[in-house]
Amino acid sequence: MFNRRVVLHADGTVVKSGKRIALGEAEALKVAAHAGIPAPRVRDAYVTADGQGCIRMDYIKGQPLDTLWPDMSVQEKRDIALQLRELIEKMRSVAPLAHLIGACDGTEIRDTRLYSTYHSPACRHEGAFNDFLLSGLYEHTPPLVREAFSRRLQTNHRVVLSHCDLTPRNILVQDGKIQGLVDWEDSGWFPEYWEYVKFFQRTADKDWKLYA
Question: Is residue 4 in some structural domain?
Fold first, then answer.
């Protein structure tokens, strides 16, 4: 699905592979683990001769939250939301790479919007990141509208570790506790508001959004 495969092996590892798998995801998993974030432990990461990225990592037990969420009580949902907030606070405490907005290996920015993924070289400052965002506007957007958007974008945000796809399907839960955050494909160092933007963009579940 989406040009990638995820296979569980008998040795308890998971191999994620495909043309769209970048090694920046493996680096993000290492950064997350160092910060105490429950994420798969990376065993190996490489690119094959035909250009497929492969990441071998430990399997994490738990059920995807999207399979549990509909049957959870309001209090159980609040508990999960509070746990997730603590994890995000841990992520934000990690010292970022100097002068970098983009993947944790410093290679690129990958931003998934609806069914398209936009790529850009990593940015050295927030102004360049803003230019990347504006480049996604419809080509016939009136200049005055572009200028209005540009004036609203700031350049003084903190840059923090961001997952960028905190949807219920990427949160593994067991016995009411978050066991792992998976699918770090679009993650990296981003302005502090970016996680909030992607939280609302990457899921259609209205009930989940109430717990932002």
Answer: no
CA dist list (Å): 6 to 16, 26, 54, 76, 198: 4, 14, 10, 29, 23
Nearest to 108, CA basis, from 138, 76, 84, 132: 132
Judge whether 140 lies within some domain. Answer: yes
Domain count, the chain: 1
Q: How far apart are CA 197 and CA 193, in angstroms?
A: 7
- CB–CB of 28/34 below 8 Å? no
Q: Is residue 43 part of a domain?
A: no
Amino acid at 4: R
> Which CATH number do you get for residue 107?
3.90.1200.10
Handedness of CA 34, 5, 119, 209 (dihedral sign): negative
Widest Cα–Cα separation across the chain:
58
The model scores a pTM over 0.85:
yes
* Residue 36 maps to a domain: no
Give the domain range for residue 190: 61-209
| Tens-binned pLDDT, residue by residue, of the chain (212 aa) | 567 899 999 999 999 999 889 999 999 999 999 999 999 999 999 999 999 999 999 999 999 999 999 999 999 999 999 999 999 999 999 988 778 999 999 999 999 887 788 899 999 999 999 999 998 887 888 989 889 989 999 999 999 999 999 999 999 999 999 999 999 999 999 999 999 999 988 777 788 988 87
